[in-house]
Amino acid sequence: SDPGAGLPEFIAVGYVDEQLFMRYGKDTGRAEPQVEWMEQNEGPQYWERETQNLQGWQAAYRANLANLRQR
After folding, report:
1. Nearest-angstrom CA–CA distance, 22 and 13
2. Are 13 and 22 within 8 A, CB to CB?
3. Which three-class secondary structure state does DSSP give residue 48?
4. DSSP secondary structure letter of residue 18
5. pLDDT for residue 27
6. Are residues 59 and 65 in contact, defined by beta-carbon separation less than 8 angstroms?
7. Distance between CA 13 and CA 23 in Å, rounded?
8. Among the four 17, 20, 26, 55, which has the fewest Cβ within 10 Å?
9. How far is the first Cα of the chain from the last one, in angstroms, to the nearest whole number?
């Protein structure tokens, strides 16, 4: 079923000291820096690796939900 009006199916965020520094969502399908210091200190390879990891987590989440729906 639909997760709810306006709610994303899957999202991942990273915080340091209550500051959002990274976000991944289905809308972009990519892990992206949310603060300048992350953008300046991590290159494209880091963000590609994070994107691939989070896409794997998203796929596992979908599979787990499908299993739960069958019960």
Report:
1. 5
2. yes
3. helix
4. T
5. 82
6. no
7. 4
8. 17
9. 14
Can you list the pairs that 45-51 forms with residues at least 24 positions away whose Cβ atoms lie under 8 Å? 50/22, 50/24, 51/24
The model's pLDDT over 33-57, given as tens digits with 9 standing for 90+, comes to 999 999 999 999 999 999 999 999 9
Report residue 42 as tokens.
């991590």
DSSP 30: S
d(CA 23, CA 32): 5
Residues 6+ apart with CB under 8 A from 29: 51, 55
Distance of CA 17 to the CA centre of its chain: 19
Sorting pLDDT into bands at 50, 70 and 90, what band is 20?
very high
Do the beta carbons of residue 23 and residue 51 sit within 8 Å? no
